[in-house]
Structures are given as structure tokens and as C-alpha cells.
Amino acid sequence: MKRYHPILVILHWALAIMIIGGLIMGGFVLSETPNSDPFKMTALTAHMSMGMLILVLMIVRLMFRLFTKKPQPADIGNAMLNKSADMAHWAFYAVVIAMCASGIAIANAAGLPAIIFGGSGEPLPANFNDIPPRMAHGVIAKILGLLILSHVAAALYHQFVRKDGLLGRMWFGNRKG
Description:
Blueprint: H1 6-30, H2 39-67, H3 79-110, H4 112-117, H5 132-162
Helix pairs in contact: 1-2, 2-3, 3-5
């Protein structure tokens, strides 16, 4: 088998776009928008909804990965690098799920479900930084960003230095070729 299942390919690229979008939204939009700004409510609604969708799709992707046939693991000729690549892929699942869990913890601690989705009319808290899971959310975001950068660097290395076609495994086409 040469390629991953098309559902895994779709989920990979969809989640990549959503996760990067969520990191940008959280790190550059939400963090820079005061809680008193009416736009913050709209941005939080989008960010939280996207986070919940990411969590659901990540769990679906994990289940699909566990129960579908996949290509043989890539062999770069170095056992330690092969193992670290495998660990990095599993780390993505753990870190993304932890990111979503910390987001849910922040939302619950701040009463956001009632404020944003329940129409309680309550204002947002003055500051989210005082909420304990907020620090974890920020640290996990940085770890996730580093994982993404290393993943992209590894894919580009395979594509343009090794020229081994590894990137094509996570694209559409004949799975048996």
C-alpha cells in the first residue's frame, strides 16, 4: 500500500488548516482583542466552535488511523529518527487533544458556554489570564506550533532533499501503486 486512506488524507489536510487557523486566531486575534471589545464575543464563538470541531475530527482521525490499513512506516535508515518520527505523529494526537481539553477547561472556568452559546447576557470576564488552564493553553499552543514547524520541515526535507515521494503518501491517488 502506497498511500493513506482518502478519509485520513481529507482529515489530515482539513485539520491542518483548522489547527493553524485556530492557532492564528488565538495567538494573534483573541490575545490582542480586549475582552470589552464586542468583536471578542464573535471571535470567541468562532474559536470555540472550531476547537470543538477539531476535537471531534481529531478523535475520528485517530479511530480511522487505528482501524484502517496504512503504508509501511517510512525508513530513513536511522532507527532513532524513524522512532522519533513515529513518536511525533502520536504526539500530534496527544497535543491537539490536550489543547482542546485546556480550551474547554478555560471556557468552563470562565462561564463561556452560558455567555456565548446560552445568551445569558453576562459580560466576558475582565481577563482570561487569571484562569489557571489559560497558562496551559498557551504553553500547549507553543508546543503545537513547534510540532507543526518540525512536521513541515520534515515533509519538505523528504520532498526536496531525499526526493523519496513521502509527501505523496498523504495525498489522493491509487493506494496500491
